[in-house]
Amino acid sequence: MAPSITRNPTRPVQVGSIVVGDGNPIAVQSMTATHTRDIDATVEQVNALHVAGADVVRIAVDSDKDAAALAEIRTQTQANLSVDLQENYRLAEKVAPHVDKIRYNPGHLYHHEKTRSWQDKVSYIASVARDNDCAIRVGVNCGSVDPAKKEKYPDDDIGPILESGLEHCEHLDSLGFHRFVVSLKDSDPSTVVEINSRFAEKRPDVPLHLGVTEAGLPPDGIIKTRIAFEQLIGRGIGDTIRVSLTVPNSRKPEEIAAGREIIDDIYAGRLRSVVALDPNALNIISCPSCSRVENEAFVELAQEVKVMTEYAKDHAITIAVMGCRVNGPGETDDADLGLWCGPNRVNLKKGEESLGAFTYDEILGKLRTELDKLIADKTAAPS
Prior knowledge:
About 45% of the residues are buried. About 35% of the residues lie in helices and about 20% in strands. The chain folds into two domains: about 15-270, Dihydropteroate synthase-like (TIM Barrel); about 285-380, Sulfite Reductase Hemoprotein, domain 1 (2-Layer Sandwich). Strands 3-4-5-6-7-8-9-10 form an eight-stranded parallel β-barrel, surrounded by six helices. Helix 6 packs parallel to helix 7 (about 190-200), helix 7 (about 190-200) packs parallel to helix 8 and helix 8 (about 220-235) crosses helix 9. It has helices at about 40-50, 65-75, 90-95, 120-130, 145-150, 160-175, 190-200, 220-235, 255-270, 295-310, 330, 365-380, and strands spanning about 15, 20, 25-30, 55-60, 80-85, 100-105, 135-140, 180-185, 210, 240, 285, 320, 335-340, 345-350, 355-360. By secondary structure, it is of the alpha/beta class. It is elongated, with a radius of gyration of 23 Å.
């Protein structure tokens, strides 16, 4: 029983050959780690990412030499390209003819021409983008926040990022430029969830690019990113993603594979955290199997739970089936009913309350009993 996820009603943004937002498939992106002026190495990495299924590949440009190299790179790839302007926003007009999207960071606009307002600089970028048929990403990052915003919110990690993103949207809208997406990134998954949720509430029309910055080495970097994405995509928030991993250049395509797997798992209900994918129906979530699973019967059990609970599909109840003792006990706390699997027994929980440990043969009957009680309680509650 696949969950039904209602996506935020974001507007469509064309990026080369794909459209982001407006219910289109969630796009998966990556970024080159080569020196851009090393044309051969960069082309090799761009094409490797493209072959791996990257919908967009981002390349950093920070000098005239980088810009000249980008022009040549464009002739050697069919990938949809995004350019990261880094700190030199004036390079926009040199690179825009060769890319499909321009990414700028509001916090970096203060490093050049300090007497010119950020509004003027963004107006210039938007004009260049419009003239060259480019989309824009407003990329707000925890490590380079607008200094005026940090001063305004001295003890608040979220306020500066959120306000910066919102005011840049308002400015682009005032210019009549609507072909943009926004990213609001932090290295803490919980902050990523909070800030993107708050932004989506205020601007549900703007497509969001999701990411956990500096996620780190796999597998931990994938797990951190997965948890943030589960909470956001599971609630319909997010139109394009990147999994940022610390890996050698030859392994960069792993970011694309990880992103695709996370999206597929979310839509299949294979989750590491608890999120009500459909707030009006039964949610069965189960973690992706991994090396921590101590009994392969966990996979079969998860499938049996989905079949057995079909009769309760119209009840707003969440059941979590977790495969190990490492994450299972804590990760089932937020579910109405939770199962976490050990080598020989399955632990059954109701919220944070433990209901006992049962054999794999016993657990389905015990789960059904508790599910029936929960349905009866919820049905009786209104009266």
